[in-house]
Design goal:
The protein is mainly beta and 157 residues long. 8% of the residues lie in helices and 35% in strands. The chain has a single domain (30-156), classed as Nucleic acid-binding proteins (OB fold (Dihydrolipoamide Acetyltransferase, E2P)). The chain contains 1 helix and 8 strands; from the N terminus they run αββββββββ. The strands form 2 sheets. Strands 6-5-4-7-8 form a 5-stranded antiparallel sheet, with no helix packed on it. It has a 3-stranded antiparallel sheet with strand order 2-1-3, with helices on one face. The longest helix is centred in the first third of the chain and has 13 residues, at 30-42. The structure holds zinc ion.
């Protein structure tokens, strides 16, 4: 369907193939920048805590999301956790079948009030259990770029 064509069915998906060149600079902000720098350089998971609310954030934040109080100190947490929920993905975004199914999990991060969504690795989909203890698997230090993909996934602990 071309740009100038009309449709009488507003439930049909419409799209136009093409490319849009986009240049951008993405910044993490102060809190996430510290988190990803520590992950990249030291393999550590930096958290921050609001003493007023009793909430521990991972990744570390600069401000408490509840009371907007300033959070000035960060500390490392183990990066371990427990599987809170998971799903087994069999298809790619374009609906083609994946060569191997992958497991995506919502991981309750130990020592924090936060959860990470990430891959589970080193475990067969049929072996995953809610509540299963997991530990992070990081890329080799030389391969880390300071992003969430520095974490390969979480493996059974
Ligand atoms: Zn707070």
């Amino acid at each position: 369907m071309g740009l100038t064509e009309r449709t009488n069915r507003n439930v049909d998906l419409t799209y136009w193939e093409g490319e849009i060149p986009v240049n951008y600079v993405y910044t993490y902000g102060l809190g996430l920048e510290a988190f990803f720098r520590a992950l990249k350089e030291q393999g550590k998971f930096l958290a921050s805590r609001c003493e007023d609310c009793g909430v521990t954030y991972l990744p570390a934040r600069v401000f408490c999301e509840r009371c907007l109080g300033k959070l000035e100190t960060t500390f490392a947490v183990p990066g371990t956790g427990k599987v809170y929920a998971y799903t087994v993905v069999h298809r790619n975004v374009d609906e083609s079948p994946k060569e191997e199914p992958v497991v995506l999990a919502l991981v309750d991060m130990d020592g924090t009030d936060c959860r990470f969504v990430h891959y589970l690795t080193g475990v067969e989909p049929g072996e995953v259990k809610v509540g299963m203890a997991v530990k992070p698997v990081l890329k080799a230090k030389k391969d880390r770029k300071g992003g969430i993909e520095d974490i390969v996934g979480f493996a059974p602990a």
